[in-house]
Structures are given as C-alpha cells and as structure tokens.
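> Could you send the CoA transferase subunit A prediction when you get a chance?

Sure thing. Input:
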Amino acid sequence: MDKVCSSAAEAVADIPDGASLAVGGFGLSGIPEVLIQALHTQGATGLEVVSNNCGVDGRGLGVLLAAGRIARVTGSYVGENKEFARQYLSGELEVELVPQGTLAERLRAGGAGIPAFYTPAGVGTQVANGGLPWRYAADGSVAVASPPKETRDFHGRPHVLEHAITTDFALVRAWRGDRHGNLVLRRAAANFNPLAAMAGRITIAEVEELVEPGELSPDAVHVPGVFVQRIVELTPAQAADKQIEKRTVRA
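Output:
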C-alpha cells in the first residue's frame, strides 16, 4: 500500500518510447512540473500526450515539445506556445483539438469505465462532420484529417458520439497526498488533475505535502488512492516553484 517513490526519476523510469500520457494542469496552473522535467531527463520519445494544453515555451509540456519528444497531442488550447504552432503547421506534430468540456468528459469516462457517450457539443461543425486537420504535410496541405463521427437524435436534438480516453500513464500534481495515494487538490490545481488521474492506467502524482494514512479527511479527498499507483514528495523549493503565463497586478 505504500506507493511512495524515492524520486521523480524513479517514478518515471519505466515510461517507454511511444507511451500515451494524460497530464494534469491548466496552462501552468497545477502542472506536474517535476515529473515532466524528470521525464525529459529520462529521454522517452514519440509520446502521445492528452492534456488541456501543451504548456508554454520553456515550461511544462513545452519542455518535452521543444526537445522533439512529443509525437501527438490531444488537447483544447494551444494559444500560448509558439513552438507548438510551428511544429503543428510544419507537419512535425499531430494535433487533435477537442472542445474543452468534451475532453474533460472523455478522460472522466475513461476512468469510470464508460466506453463512449453522446454530447451536443460540436454538432454541425468539423468536430462532428470530420475534416479537422490533425496533421499537415510539409507543403501545407492536410495529410491527416479527423474522421466523421456518429450522430444520433435524443429528444429531438442531435448529439455526437465521443469515445472515452485512457492512457498508459498519467502525470498529476496535488497539494497533499498520503502514502496510499489519496490526493487533495487546492484551488485552481483542481482542474484537469482529477480527470487525468482517473484516465491513466499507471498514475504518478507529485505532492507538495506527504502525510500518513488517516491524516486526510475522507470528505476532503479529490482523487481516491485507487486511481494512483505512485507518489513523489516534492521538496519545499519544488513545491514553491509555481509559474503563471501572464502576471497581472494592480498599479
């Protein structure tokens, strides 16, 4: 039951080339920065990443992207990463853009064992009809486009069928965690972290504070330990290193 690893390097050591990863965070809020850096050092390549976004240039998943380690991204937002745009438009990177709520539910459904679901989001657009560019060719033409999806009417309203997402591994960050893998998230970090944790077959969590089993109130737990296989305790310096994309303060 003790799921604590001695280091982030140990926790990610067996992630192979070509693995699929669900990664928590929203922008740079609540991202598993230490695990991402450890994976960069470890050297796995050809990764297929599922995350709301792909970090920014030089931070978060942007580190793996810049190193050419990511082959495919399933996400909702790409606006803060110039290298992401360059790789996508040049045909180096395959990208599946998904409505944000749909992405959240696809991850949750994967963790809950639900293979697919219908949603009205995307009906009447390329999300449902197909044709979204997943990969460009070097000459700028579309090399791979999204396929059309099944649609069905419920109560007179059309819905599109979306498939659940499960991944080989998941990397998440939590405020507090115990040795059994129960996690408590704080404020904005409770974004895609619970959903990513559910979707990963092997979920690795970095925690700012590690406590003993029984210290966390069951009512406070956001991610039960059944979804978490490995825990990494951060140092105080690592826990305090939190960046944001754009800092706005009053004059």
